[in-house]
Write a structure and sequence with these properties.
- The protein has eleven helices and ten strands.
- The chain has helices at residues 3-15, 28-36, 46-52, 62-73, 94-105, 125-139, 162-174, 188-198, 213-218, 229-247, 260-267, and strands spanning 20-22, 42-43, 80-83, 109-113, 115-116, 121-122, 147-151, 179-181, 202-205, 223-225.
- An eight-stranded parallel β-sheet has the order 1-10-9-8-7-4-3-2. The chain has a two-stranded antiparallel ribbon with strand order 5-6.
- The longest helix has 19 residues, at 229-247.
- It is globular.
Length: 269
């Protein structure tokens, strides 16, 4: 499937009056496994990819991300959205150049967030809005456009201010975001308030605290993602298995290994 066709398909998923789940692989193998399991779209994870490189989140260079996107986009026929953090505003060409590079690498969509890891704070809303608008213009330079997601990072960083989160999401929508996302919302009341206020597709992170997916669908959520959580589960299983072996008594970890059927479906080609 061409990059343009995948951008079209990704927009169609958002326009459809039905929730879809978009898990976040961190390498080619996890992308192919998730595609074989029947998902309709995938997204990168900034933290999961950073761990795969032996780094912490926010430490990945733009060139590394672009190469990663090209590899994942070439691994399956599914639309791929990119967790592009702040869209590298300080790199050459800034936000617009980042979006252009991601689109040319095969992305069907990307996100831009308002957390500044260097300053250790949420960006001023006026600056964040300017960057969303810049990203939106760059996304719409493609035909068909990339789907742009505007992210409000308050709840990831312990700022439990739903009014500010909603105000930011509305501002990002008005600046051109096609979808909005506030990671770590946890209650049905929070999710319902966001969905009711923004008037565009809403993404919710599938944490243990959120309501079940059927309830999220009833609340009007359009898209579910997993962020770094699937990668965290995989790395957590690796660490637990290694500790079991290090203990020197059992090796029960192997009972939960990938099945041959899933292996063949994902990699047998």
């Amino acid at each position: 499937m061409s990059a343009a066709a995948r951008r079209t398909r990704f927009a169609e998923l958002h326009a459809r009056e039905r929730l879809f789940v978009m898990p976040n692989p961190w390498d080619i193998g996890s992308a192919r496994l998730l595609a074989a399991l029947g998902f309709e779209a995938l997204a990168t994870t900034s933290a999961g990819f950073a761990w795969a490189l032996g780094k912490l989140d926010t430490q990945v260079a733009r060139g590394e991300l672009v190469d990663h996107v090209a590899a994942l986009a070439g691994a399956t026929d599914l639309p791929l959205s990119v967790d592009s953090e702040r869209c590298y505003p300080d790199a050459p060409g800034g936000v617009a150049e980042t979006v252009r590079l991601l689109g040319e690498a095969g992305a069907a969509g990307c996100s831009i967030e308002d957390w500044n890891p260097v300053a250790g704070r949420i960006e001023d809303v006026s600056l964040a809005v300017e960057r969303v608008a810049e990203a939106a213009a760059a996304a719409r330079a493609f035909d068909p456009p990339l789907v742009l997601t505007g992210r409000a990072e308050n709840h990831v960083h312990g700022i439990d201010d739903l009014d500010d989160t909603i105000a930011r999401l509305v501002a990002y929508r008005d600046a051109g975001a096609d979808c909005v996302y506030a990671p770590w919302l946890s209650t049905a009341e929070q999710v319902s308030a966001v969905v009711g206020a923004v008037g565009v597709p809403v993404n919710v992170l599938a944490t243990p605290a959120v309501p079940p997916l059927p309830e999220l669908a009833e609340l009007g959520v359009r898209r579910i993602s997993t962020g770094s959580l699937l990668a965290g589960v995989a790395y957590g299983a690796l660490a637990a298995a290694a500790r079991e072996l290090q203990g020197g008594s059992t090796s029960t970890y192997a009972a939960d290994r990938l099945t041959e059927g899933d292996k063949q479906a994902a990699f047998g080609r």
